[in-house]
Amino acid sequence: MYLLSIDIGSTTIKSAVFDLEGNLVSIGRRKTEVFHKEENSARYAFWMPDNIWKQVCKAVQESLNKISDIKLIKSVTVTGFACDGVPLDKEGNCLYPFISWHDTRCVEQIEWLEKNVDLEEIYNINGQKPWIHNTILRNIWVKKHLPDVYRKIYKWLLIEDYVNYKLCGVMATDYSLASTTLVFDLKSLNWSEKLFDIFGINMNIYPQPKPSGTLIGTISASAARETGLAFGTPVVIGGLDGLCGVYATAGDQRENLVGVVGTYEHYHKCVDSPILNKKGLDSSIICQAHVIKDKYGVYGVAVSSGVLEWFKDVFCADEERQAKRIKKNIWEILMKKAGNSRIGSNGVFMLPDIFGSACPVQDNFSRGVFLGMSSTSKKEDFIRAVIEGLNYKGFELYDAIKNYTRSTGEKVIITGGATRNEFWMQLKADMLGMVIEVPQLEEATPLGAAMIGGIGIGVYKNFEDAFKKVKRDIKTYFPDGKNHEIYVKHYKDVYKKIYPSCKKINTYISRNLSW
User: Which uninterrupted H or E stretch holds 287?
Assistant: First the structure.
């Protein structure tokens, strides 16, 4: 008996098959492709619906190649990233592509909100400070700039919900993903009429929210043909990728914060009721419904390995050619080079805000900064500076969530793709000055979704039972006390001063010189 999950990631779409003890049996992967298009002198970023579905089908087909009987797959569950949605008409036709999180078109909507709406009122209902990627802001943008499209909208589906619709023909969402739209009421666990009225958007274009683990349908005949899955296989609604990964990694961890380090970096606290106050709003801390029944997640977010990917793509063509020539992983080569630079990157620092800043300071106009370069600076210093800059940002995030939730844990539990990078994890332990535990789970995020699928079809009694039945080995990183002291000094004396020192000039550049 197996459980299959589909993980829509920002760089890779995965289809993973697990047994009931959480062992990875098979996996298929396809690239998540970002498309860019010029519209009215602006350059926008999209995910194309047909492309997403095609890549999902190919990933599922690949994951089924090693399965002797497709009827051994007992459930299908989808997880993925937040906010990005697609408008459909009554026949299920896509009216406009998914607006990608790479796209910054909704700055005008954020500026309007800040001038005209009480942000604390929104936060006290939804648990988020508005940011340019919230789904409702895309709705407002479409209503203003594409009124013909807006008038035809029957439902606006998030990317996971669209995949579920293609799998089983049902339009629905879950509480955790609904939370990311900015119009979900955390206390009633339903759409907020008040917030929809504030934004001037028809509430009926959003699908019915349901708890993660709800059986919503079965694989349709057409989806069976396209994916290779058995007709009639149960489809269980999953949830937000970060929360699925946190659940698989640590369950409803009460003492210690749980980190996810991948394209984004998060630090999570699982709580019994929403924490909603002005301090959270001012620090851009997110509170949302968890995938775990009757729980809430409190966390902060920053782009993480996405920055490192950008650096690799722009500056490391030589290393990529070397990796292909000697058949080595590019990250092994880059980390070895970074190791040749000393702590502090020989005076080179990076503010890793190339996608703006989210938490604990939300600033859509912030930009990336390298400083401290000299004539002796080498590429290895820049590589290490990126990693250290991301770790400074992670330290800032961790500290914000720890203080906000009054956590007293003495260790950090971390999951995500970046945990395979031992050099990075050791530097992170040194930066935090804390023990880092990395459960050795293969593909924690899709595993969490698969576990939720198992709960939905009854092979696990509940969330606690599923967590206990999955086996975990732990890899531990111990901090170097001397390095920690150096990093804390650099953090206070240099890193924390970069953002305020560059704020005005970065705002000017973003407003006047960016395209």
Answer: strand 286-289
Angle at 169 between CA 168 and CA 170, to 5 degrees: 95
Span 98-122, pLDDT tens digits: 999 888 899 899 999 989 999 999 9
Rounded CA-CA distance 31/27 in Å is 14
3-state secondary structure 384-453: HHHHHHHHHHHHHHHHHHHHHHCCCCCEEEEECHHHHCHHHHHHHHHHHCCEEEEECCCCHHHHHHHHHH
344-357 residue pLDDT tens: 999 999 999 999 99
Residue 514 has pLDDT above 70, yes or no: no
End-to-end CA distance of the chain: 52
Structure-block tokens of residue 332: 């092994």
**Is residue 504 packed enough to be buried (19+ CB in 10 Å), middle (13-18) or exposed (0-12)?**
exposed
b/e code 424-451 from CB counts within 10 Å (16+ = b)? bbbbbbbbbebbbbbbebebbbbbbbbb
Residue 39 clears pLDDT 90, i.e. is over it: no
Q: How many CB atoms lie within 10 A of CB 327?
A: 6
Tell me the C-alpha distance between 404 and 33, whole Å. 37
DSSP state of 65: T
Q: Report helix, strand or coil for 285.
A: coil
Please spell the DSSP secondary structure of 207-256, one letter per residue.
Answer: PEEE-TT-EEEE--HHHHHHH-PPTT-EEEEEEEHHHHHHHHHHSS--SS
